[in-house]
Design goal:
This protein is of the alpha+beta class. The protein has 11 helices and 11 strands. β3 and β4 form a beta hairpin. α9 runs antiparallel to α10 and α9 crosses α11.
Amino acid sequence: RPGPTHSPYSGGVTDHSISPALPGATDPPVFTGFDDLVAWSSPRARPHVSRGGVIAAERLGGVIDVVEVLSSTPRSIVARCRSGQRSVVLKYFRRRDSARNASGFGYLRAKFGAKVLPGAASVLAYDDEARVLIHEDLEVSPGRRYSAAELLRWARSWPDLVVPATSTASEEFRASLGRSDPVSAAKGHPGALPSLGLARRASITDDQLRDFLDPALSVMWCGDMNPANFALDRDGTYRQLDSEGTGYCDPALLVVEARLGLPSAPDLGTIDARPSPDQWNEIGNFLASRWNVTPERESIARLILASILRELAPTPSHSRSGSRQQ
């Protein structure tokens, strides 16, 4: 992770003169036509969002008659688009270099990550120039709440939500990032989590850093510690809504995240009751056993995570807010 999960990109200004068209739908906004979503977006975003609407309508095979804004953050706008009984999810990335900069969370990692992560929401269509992705709709509503038992169940599923970083799909992911962003690739370790620059800020040796970023010891992970971005499917498996942080990491980092109770999660306000430290530690033991993580690798991961948390710490001018949706 090269920077805060919620980087202070300049975002759009909501036009409060345009009110949601459906009664009572004020948060999130719901519109009865796509043109209203375009008008609601910032002037800079409108042509890109409009292009996304054209692509979404083509995928749906009809006119978009209902649009629900699932999230609007400094990084993106996410909206569910419906035509009759069919729906897709549109995601527009605000950052202008999103389609050629793979160094951080964003468009490229989302586009290519959806192809490699188990159970990830599929990318049905995309437009690099507009920085728009059209995802399958997993029909998940924002604002879900979780019990401690549900949170622990999700954490125990992590081994099923990753693949080895040496798999064919994982290698193609890294190659795709390198082709799209040769500048970052030239620095080495394209797709690493955290980024090479951030990892170097940790108090570890060069040899430890090289081992930590070795794909042979790593797994492909979505880069997301927010339970709201996962959905339990009918068959009991989890689907992944958000792939914009996809990269490879030493699973020791996930073990430490679990032991410490998800310290890098952007918002745990949706949790009704948090697991106890002993419960989290048991999850850490389970994950360490599944991934053959040694105490030495955990120690290095703790130093790496400390570097990540320093980067995520809110500054006087920017605070972390909002959960990242698909």
